[in-house]
Design a protein that fits this description.
Radius of gyration: 26 Å
Helix content: 25-40%
Low-confidence stretches: 208-213, 679-686
Mean pLDDT: 91
Largest sheet: 9 strands, antiparallel
Oligomer: single chain
């Protein structure tokens, strides 16, 4: 991830990461630059005045898609007697636009040489992420009388960056320049437009991003205003809750991604900078988190994932009939099958979660037409669960990658190489089955039974799914329970041996409903106990486990999304106070990130650090971290669709004060919910 001092603006799959001066000086391994459709279209963008670099006085994040930089010439000193001001204002949206204003504060006229160095390595995002830049095509630069054309060509695969200015400039292969004369108190302005062009391997135009001056910004501004107006209003006596909520709604707008095949409809991209694309698991879980607030994302997500559902057996992409994709990419490595993401199907949770989201969406929206529309896709998903995912033949969902070169080893949400282990710290052989995925399968079958009975006119199928779910629940509670720990194992190996570590995955089991009632209290105690609970959130792996590391990616950090599903699971089993305690911790943590929770943060105890410790490479903004406060709001207020109405049963922490959520959309129209804090967290913590 880029350093924390960088400035980021984005609009879905298009984003710019720069220094605080607005300059971009990317190395092949740094995620700074102008990116679109998984390609870096600018890797150098450096402004100088009379050959001098500029010093940042301040910058403003105006909106998620635009920023403004206030600069003076020269390096920073203790005293700057600046005679010039330089303002750079930029926006990203189908194209990249930068307005440059220079003001002369001197008492005499000045002659200035303004230059922008521009260049591009056209790095695929995977090349940046993997810290390997190995271009196999031709990079070219062409200076034309009225524009600079930077390009990359590999067969029929082509990417171009076309730069032009509203004021005539002198273009060369490495940038462009202006010679200007300014009288005292005079200002000079130019607008620079950067157009991105992409052509696929087959010669098909993928993107041509230039719009008329002013049109793009106004359209983005209007769209954001409309997006905010459609979302419920949250008022709170809590110092930062309303601000965090608004930040989340705006970040969800920023993360909306319109796949090239979708004709303008949007779904949530996973996160900046590495995951600004469509993900099955991430998009589904984000939609589940945000249903009471932005339900329109769910229908689009379901439709596009259904349209791309697996239809064949393909070992390279790990595709099976009925399997829901993991990730879709549009860059060079995917186009030339150096990566399998075109799309890639290597996850075992997105398929059952697809059914879970469809049912949850219908309960909120009443959109039975979509349930009927996606009946066959759901049936194919169940066939994948039963026939293709059970690699061992014992009724569980397993994974073992078939693409051994570029496929994912771990195909659950904790997908880093060392995230699944035994208690002694060793790693199990493949295939592996993780606990939460079995819970998702149970939940999918229970929900699918409702859909079959109420919408597909197939009561026999409904009864079959219910029988299968009951058998799965009984089998799971027998095979996965760790007797000497009082919790469920993280995973099983192919011989049935338990990966018997304590992990946050047990919270997902509560959410799915697969936990036997007489064991739920033990699970709840673990989630708010000292080994998992930090005071800010739930650790991914419990303190005391051999592989525990408070800054290990999946082995001890806190993931806000993960914690939010733990809270939802606690609430499902009646542990409302514990859920409120968890919600309070994450919402407190959000204040230290200015309302924007990162992908993950350190799992240190709250009393040790006094603030949540940043994880060095966390994505931000990230969709399911953005969705976490929204799901926690739902959990605290006890918002649940019930028989066509919205049920409200609040349980708030002490000190939260009054919360109002106004105009909650659903099949009931729009309704309001009110609550006041009344849970004693101090007695719980003791």
């Amino acid at each position: 991830m880029a350093p924390s001092h960088t400035v980021r603006i984005l609009d879905g799959n298009n984003f710019v990461v720069s220094e605080a001066t607005g300059d971009i000086e990317a190395t092949p391994t740094e995620p700074t630059g102008l990116f679109s459709i998984d390609t870096r279209f600018l890797s150098r963008w450096v402004l100088t005045v009379n050959g001098e670099r500029l010093n940042a006085l301040s910058y403003d994040d105006l909106q998620y898609y635009e920023s403004r930089f206030f600069l003076v010439p020269g390096l920073a000193t203790h005293y700057v007697d600046a005679k010039l001001s330089i303002i750079r204002e930029r926006a990203v949206g189908g194209s990249f636009r930068e307005d440059i204003t220079i003001l002369n504060h001197d008492e005499k006229a000045v002659d200035l040489e303004i230059r922008m160095d521009a260049g591009c390595d056209f790095a695929d995002l995977f090349e940046v992420k993997d810290e390997i830049l190995n271009k196999k095509g031709e990079i070219y630069s062409e200076a034309e009388p009225d524009r600079l054309r930077l390009g990359y060509r590999r067969g029929n695969f082509k990417r171009e960056t076309i730069i032009s200015s509203s004021v005539p400039a002198r273009y060369d292969r490495n940038g462009f320049a202006f010679s200007i004369h300014l009288e005292p108190n005079e200002q000079w302005d130019t607008r620079i437009d950067v157009q991105t062009l992409a052509v696929g391997p087959g010669g098909r135009d993928l993107r041509l991003g230039l719009q008329a001056h002013g049109t793009e910004r106004l359209a983005l501004q209007h769209d954001l205003e409309e997006w905010i107006a459609k979302a419920p209003t949250v008022n709170s006596e809590h110092d930062s809750l309303s601000a965090t909520y608004r930040k989340c709604i705006v970040d969800l707008a920023a993360l909306r991604f319109s796949p090239l095949s979708l004709g303008g409809q949007t779904l949530p991209a996973a996160g900046l900078p590495w995951f600004m694309t469509m993900f099955g698991r991430d998009s589904i879980l984000t939609c589940l988190q945000t249903l009471p607030f932005t339900p329109q994302l769910s229908a689009t997500t379901l439709r596009i994932l259904a349209a791309l559902q697996g239809t064949r057996f393909d070992d390279f992409r790990e595709e099976d009939p009925g399997r829901i994709l993991h990730e879709m990419r549009y860059g060079e490595s995917a186009a030339f099958e150096e990566q399998p993401h075109s799309p890639y199907y290597g996850s075992v949770d997105s398929t059952p979660l697809f059914v879970v989201l469809l049912d949850e969406y219908e309960q909120w929206s009443g959109d039975g037409a979509l349930v009927k529309e996606l009946e066959q896709e759901c049936r194919r998903a169940f066939k994948w669960i039963d026939d293709y995912a059970d690699l061992v033949g014992n009724g569980y969902i397993w994974y073992e990658r078939r693409n051994t070169d570029t496929g994912l080893e771990n195909q659950c949400w904790k997908d880093s190489w060392d995230s699944i282990s035994y208690r002694d710290g060793t790693l199990p052989p493949f295939p592996r089955a993780t606990c939460e995925v079995q819970g998702y399968a149970y939940d999918a079958k229970m929900r699918g039974a409702r859909l079959a009975r109420e919408f597909w006119d197939d009561p026999a199928f409904a009864e079959q799914l219910e029988r299968e779910a009951a058998a799965l629940k009984e089998r799971f509670n027998r095979d996965w329970w760790v007797e000497d720990g009082g919790y469920y194992a993280l995973a099983l190996d192919p011989d049935g041996r338990q990966c018997d570590v304590l992990s946050s995955n047990i919270g997902h089991l509560l959410w799915s409903g697969i936990v036997d009632d007489d064991r739920a209290e033990q699970i709840a105690h673990h989630l708010v106990g000292a080994r998992l609970w930090t005071g800010w959130g739930v650790r991914t792996l419990a303190e005391g486990e051999v592989r525990y590391n408070p800054i290990g990616y999946h082995n001890g950090t806190v993931w806000p999304f993960d914690t939010s599903f733990c809270a939802w699971g606690l609430r499902r089993y009646g542990f409302a106070e514990e859920a409120a305690m968890i919600a309070n911790g994450i919402l407190d943590a959000a204040r230290y990130f200015d309302g924007r929770l990162p992908e993950a943060f350190g799992g240190y105890p709250r009393e040790q650090t006094k603030f949540p410790v940043e994880y060095p490479t966390a994505c931000s903004p990230q969709a399911w971290s953005t969705g976490a406060p929204l799901l926690l709001l739902r959990t605290m207020l006890g918002l649940e669709p019930h028989e066509g109405h919205l049920a409200v049963e609040p349980r708030l922490p002490v000190g939260m004060g009054r919360i109002e959520v106004l105009d909650i959309p659903g099949r009931w129209g729009r309704v309001d919910a009110f609550a006041r804090g009344r849970v004693d967290l101090h007695s719980l913590a003791g």
